[in-house]
Amino acid sequence: MDTSFFLAWIKEAATAVQAERDHLTQLDAAIGDADHGANLDRGFAAVRQALADTPPETPGAVLVQAGSALIRKVGGASGPLYGTAFRQMGRALGDAPEITPAGLVTALEAAQEGVQKLGGAAEGDKTLVDAFAPAVRALAQAVQDGAKLEDALETATTAAEEGARATVPLQARKGRASYLGPRSVGHEDPGAASTALIFAALRRAAGQA
Ligand code: ADP
Ligand code: MG
């Protein structure tokens, strides 16, 4: 995976977030403040602008720049969380021009660690960690088993989507939704839903490469 692969990922993620903007906002309307779709759409638009203004030369630079733009542009919980995820990933990639599947796994593990350190959420707290963690786990396993990158990312995407769906019966213990207590039960977590979109975008980028 080279720099253009990671740029393709960002482009796919931005397109998906824009297409699902209203859906993400509806999910956030049920258990939050109805801004998640708008937040991420604004954030990814800023990311694409930043990448166009200052074209990065390495995969790591793509992701560090993306994360920085998200932190700059998105208020609320998700901007710093996704921003940290992309920045940590980019840092883990260093200045390598080409990333192996094992390198991608290590970087995503670093991203997950960054998110959990910043937000303090564990799996089961009904946050984006509930999609992120199983996706990273599934990807690590598939890569270790020698799966083709596309297939490994398909498995990871499925795990993220299942993780997002599995947030429905949970009661939120972190973030704004936790203020609702038991009334947060019965709704999908918006951040888990957007994390599944971002993994699906990664899968599509691999299909183009
Ligand atoms: P805000 O809650 O500030 O309005 P968003 O609506 O953009 O921000 O994002 C809400 C999402 O952020 C939630 O659905 C959840 O997935 C995620 N989130 C909130 N707090 C945390 C946390 N502490 N750790 C991980 N994810 C979190
Ligand atoms: Mg919100």
Account of the protein in words:
- The protein is an all-alpha fold and 209 residues long.
- The chain has one domain (3-208): Serine Threonine Protein Phosphatase 5, Tetratricopeptide repeat (Alpha Horseshoe).
- 71% of the residues lie in helices and 0% in strands.
- The chain has 9 helices and no strands.
- The longest helix is centred in the middle third of the chain and has 19 residues, at 101-119.
- The protein is globular, with a radius of gyration of 16 Å.
- Adenosine-5'-diphosphate (ADP) binds next to helix 3, helix 5 and helix 9.
CATH superfamily placement: DhaL domain
For the sheet with most strands, the description reads: none
- CATH class term: Mainly Alpha
Q: Sum up the overall morphology in one term.
A: globular
- Supply the number of structural domains: 1
- How much helicity do the residues have? over 70%
Q: What would CATH call the architecture?
A: Alpha Horseshoe
Total strand segments: 0
CA-based gyration radius: 16 Å
CATH topology: Serine Threonine Protein Phosphatase 5, Tetratricopeptide repeat
Beta-strand proportion: under 5%
Low-confidence regions: none
Arithmetic mean pLDDT: 97
Total of helices: 9
- Separation, N- and C-terminal Cα atoms: 8 Å
Q: Structural class of the helices, strands and pairings?
A: mainly alpha
List ligands, each type once: adenosine-5'-diphosphate, magnesium ion
Order of helices and strands: HHHHHHHHH
